[in-house]
Amino acid sequence: MSLGDKISNKAEELSGKAKETAGSATGDEQLRAEGQADQAKAGLKGAVENVKDAAKDLFKK
To answer: Does the predicted model carry a pTM greater than 0.70?
Structure first.
């Protein structure tokens, strides 16, 4: 995973956490759910990138 991808995924995860927190604090369930979805999407992207990296490492040997 490139550094840019890692930074982008982390930013999306933190943005999602902020949305979730704001939604919880204000009672906005839609905003809270959006935040959780953003975090899940960032986590999935990270997992896919990790699989790609592992596959590249496997075929380099």
So the answer is: yes
Q: What six digits make up the tokens of 24?
A: 């919880």
CB atoms within 10 A of CB 55: 10
Q: Any idea of the CA torsion for 49, 53, 54, 56, to the nearest 10 degrees?
A: 140
CB 13 within 8 A of CB 1: no
CA distance 47 to 42: 9
pLDDT in tens, the chain (61 residues): 678 888 999 999 999 999 999 999 999 999 999 999 999 999 999 999 889 888 888 888 6
Distance CA 24, CA 50 (A): 31
> Whose structure tokens read 């899940």?
40
